[in-house]
């Protein structure tokens, strides 16, 4: 019995270390400029927006400051009374040289409110290359260049995971370690072994390719547009690739409820769309190897304190070194935040198997394996402001 426990304990630690090594090899240091591709390819950047957030002015200013020869910005807003429209107008006045339009309306093509908001922008995009980008992505000057640098002959989609940055308070630190050294790390490790998964934060599409295979409506096949994108690209015999260095998402202040709600929603979406990959997530973090290691110590002559210390060092030290090597956020609260995150993982995992509705930016979403529903206002007609 003790031999089995030791083998499982070692296997979990080695799997954790392998994911860190794979991600480290795949990732460039954050902020590293992309190799300069041909920059005269025109690009449409479609950004769904709703409400004013802590970093809205900064993210808008960055979107208008992308270093690319020819690109247009298309902002999609569901509600004509949304105050963010004024912020977009102000950012545009500071950079009148960047083509921009604001489209208002809500087209119910799915149970995904973001996809519904993006639909009009996709239809209005004038160029063959389209980026679907979340409004809270802090786009660097080489934003489009980094996306194109990851496109290869068999690529069907290029994405970036969100890289947590500038957390304000402990729970924002917890969100940061969820995003960076856990989710980003495993996503890059998966891509390194040929299991690339799409991420909806930044998605570079070849518009004729997607339009020939159902258009943006094809992304309504799943409740999460990135899950539908992953499955579509794989059906086409192509690959999902990730940028060499992910784009930052400034976090600001977060509460415990914020982190719990967001992680529960994402966990539920992963459970519904990729159940075989989601199921082993219960084994992530330090808690499973720690508990198994303590059980092994209980039936051997090894001290429990020694096993606990060895386990925590083997799990957390490489994770911290990964963040340091890639210039990701680190602070004195990083290690305590990792411990809290790992205590939350089992709770998020079990919550994800329940059928309770989840909240997303004011929208109530019933997410099921066979049926998903968005409960909100009726479809609004499209208009341009």
What is the terminal separation in angstroms?
Answer: 69 Å
Regions with little confidence, pLDDT below 50 for 5+ residues: none
Could you name the CATH class of the largest domain?
Alpha Beta
| Class computed from helices, strands and strand pairing | alpha/beta
Name the shape in a single word: elongated
Number of helices: 13
Report on this structure.
The chain is α/β, with parallel strands linked by helices. Helix 1 (2-26) packs across helix 6 and helix 6 packs across helix 13 (334-352). 46% of the residues lie in helices and 19% in strands. The chain is elongated.
How would you sum up this structure in a few lines?
This protein has 385 residues and is α/β, with parallel strands linked by helices. It has 13 helices and 13 strands.
Using brief descriptors, characterize the structure shown.
2 domains, three-stranded antiparallel β-sheet, 385 residues, Spore Coat Polysaccharide Biosynthesis Protein SpsA, Chain A, eight-stranded mixed β-sheet, alpha/beta, elongated, 13 helices
Write the layout of secondary structure elements.
Elements: H1 2-26, E1 43-49, H2 56-63, E2 71-77, H3 84-94, E3 100-106, H4 113-124, E4 129-133, H5 143-149, E5 155-160, E6 162-168, H6 170-192, E7 202-206, H7 207-211, H8 225-235, E8 239-242, E9 247-253, H9 256-273, H10 275-278, H11 287-298, H12 304-325, H13 334-352, E10 358-360, E11 363-367, E12 372-375, E13 380-384
Parallel strand pairs: 1-2, 1-4, 2-3, 5-8, 6-9
Antiparallel strand pairs: 3-13, 4-7, 5-7, 10-11, 11-12
Helix pairs in contact: 1-6, 1-11, 1-12, 2-3, 6-13, 9-13, 11-12
């Amino acid at each position: 019995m003790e031999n089995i426990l030791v083998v499982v304990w070692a296997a979990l630690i080695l799997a954790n270390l392998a994911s860190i090594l794979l991600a480290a090899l795949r990732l460039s240091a954050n902020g590293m400029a992309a190799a300069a591709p041909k920059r005269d390819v025109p690009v449409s950047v479609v950004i769904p927006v709703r409400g004013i957030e802590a970093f809205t002015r900064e993210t808008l200013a960055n979107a208008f400051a992308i270093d690319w020869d020819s690109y247009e910005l298309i902002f999609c807003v569901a509600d004509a009374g949304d105050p963010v429209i004024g912020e977009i107008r102000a950012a545009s006045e500071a950079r009148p040289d960047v083509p921009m339009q604001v489209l208002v309306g809500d087209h119910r093509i799915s149970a995904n409110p973001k996809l519904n908001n993006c639909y009009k922008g996709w239809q209005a995009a004038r160029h063959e290359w389209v980026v679907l980008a979340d409004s809270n992505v802090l786009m660097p000057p080489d934003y489009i260049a980094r996306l194109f640098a990851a496109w290869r002959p068999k690529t069907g989609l290029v994405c970036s995971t969100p890289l947590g940055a500038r957390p304000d308070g402990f729970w924002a630190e917890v969100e940061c370690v969820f995003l960076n050294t856990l989710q980003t790390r495993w996503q890059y490790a998966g891509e390194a072994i040929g299991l690339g998964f799409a991420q909806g934060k930044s998605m570079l599409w070849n518009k004729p390719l997607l339009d020939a295979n159902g258009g943006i409506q094809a992304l309504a096949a799943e409740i999460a547009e990135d899950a539908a994108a992953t499955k579509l690209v794989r059906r086409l015999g192509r690959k999902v690739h990730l940028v060499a260095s992910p784009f930052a998402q400034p976090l600001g202040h977060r509460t415990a409820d914020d982190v719990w709600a967001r992680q529960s929603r994402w966990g539920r979406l992963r459970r519904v769309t990729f159940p075989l990959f989601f199921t082993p997530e219960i084994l992530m973090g330090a808690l499973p190897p720690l508990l198994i290691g303590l059980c092994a110590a209980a039936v051997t002559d090894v001290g429990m304190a020694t096993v606990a210390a060895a386990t925590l060092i083997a799990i957390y030290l490489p994770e911290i070194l990964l963040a340091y090597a890639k210039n990701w956020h680190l602070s004195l609260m990083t290690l305590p935040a990792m411990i809290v995150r790992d205590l939350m993982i089992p709770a998020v995992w079990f919550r994800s198997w329940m059928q309770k509705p989840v909240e997303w930016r004011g929208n109530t979403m019933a997410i099921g394996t066979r049926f998903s529903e968005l409960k909100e206002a009726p479809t609004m007609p499209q208009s341009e402001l």
